[in-house]
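Input C-alpha cells:
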C-alpha cells in the first residue's frame, strides 16, 4: 500500500496554506506556515515575492495537488477516483469529493476519533477498527450510509484509543455523520453536500486538469 512518507509540513508550505496534516500541531506556533510562510526549497523566499501570473494549467495543477495532499492520496489512486466519478451520474467534481470523503480513514477523522487523516490511516492499518463487525486494515475502504464503524474490542483498553475518545466529545462533527462516543462507534447517514466539504478545494479545476 503506497503512501507519502516525506515531511508533510513542506506540503502545506508549497500550497501556501494550512492543510491540517499534523493534527494539533497545526494549531500551535510550531506550525510551519506560522514560521516560514513561503514555499520550500532554496528559491522559496524568491517565489514568495514573485509577481508572475499563474497560468491556467498551474492553477489546475495546484488544485489537484492540494486535494491529493489533503486526503493523503497518491496520483495513481486519485486518477482512479476521478475515472470512477466520471462514470457516475451527477456532477463529476462533486462526486469525486464525495468519494474522497467516504474513505474509511476520512470518516474516522470526521467522527473526531483521530486528530488527523494520517493518524486515522495508521489506526486503520493497525487493525483497531471494525466495519460492520469485520476487522479491516484498508484505509481507502468506501463507507456507505448505514455501515457501522466501531473500535475492536481488543483495542478499547489501549491508552491511545482511550485518549482519542476522551476528547472526541469536544469535537464538532458534520451533519452527514452519526457518532456514538460511549460505544466507540459511528458511521455516515448520507453523502455530504458540497457546502459540507472543505470550501478551499476547487473541484472544477481538478476536472479541467484531467479533461485536458
Amino acid at each position: 500500500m503506497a503512501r507519502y512518507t516525506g515531511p508533510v509540513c513542506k506540503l502545506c508550505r508549497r500550497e501556501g496554506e494550512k492543510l491540517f496534516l499534523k493534527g494539533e500541531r497545526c494549531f500551535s506556533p510550531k506550525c510551519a506556515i506560522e514560521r516560514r510562510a513561503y514555499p520550500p526549497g532554496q528559491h522559496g523566499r524568491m517565489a514568495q515575492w514573485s509577481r508572475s501570473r499563474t497560468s491556467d494549467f498551474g492553477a489546475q495543477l495546484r488544485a489537484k495537488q492540494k486535494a491529493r495532499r489533503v486526503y493523503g492520496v497518491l496520483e495513481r489512486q486519485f486518477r482512479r477516483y476521478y475515472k470512477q466519478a466520471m462514470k457516475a451520474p451527477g456532477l463529476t467534481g462533486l462526486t469525486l469529493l464525495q468519494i474522497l470523503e467516504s474513505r474509511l480513514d476520512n470518516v474516522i477523522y470526521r467522527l473526531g476519533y483521530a486528530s488527523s487523516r494520517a493518524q486515522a490511516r495508521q489506526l486503520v492499518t493497525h487493525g483497531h477498527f471494525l466495519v460492520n463487525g469485520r476487522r479491516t486494515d484498508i484505509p481507502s475502504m468506501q463507507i456507505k450510509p448505514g455501515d457501522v464503524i466501531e473500535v475492536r474490542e481488543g483495542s478499547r483498553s489501549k491508552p491511545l484509543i482511550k485518549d482519542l475518545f476522551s476528547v472526541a466529545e469536544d469535537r464538532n462533527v458534520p451533519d452527514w455523520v452519526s457518532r456514538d462516543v460511549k460505544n466507540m462507534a459511528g458511521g455516515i447517514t448520507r453523502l455530504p453536500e458540497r457546502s459540507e466539504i472543505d470550501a478551499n478545494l476547487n473541484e472544477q479545476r481538478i476536472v479541467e486538469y484531467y479533461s485536458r
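The CA atoms of residues 156 and 162 lie 7 Å apart. The longest strand covers residues 177-180.
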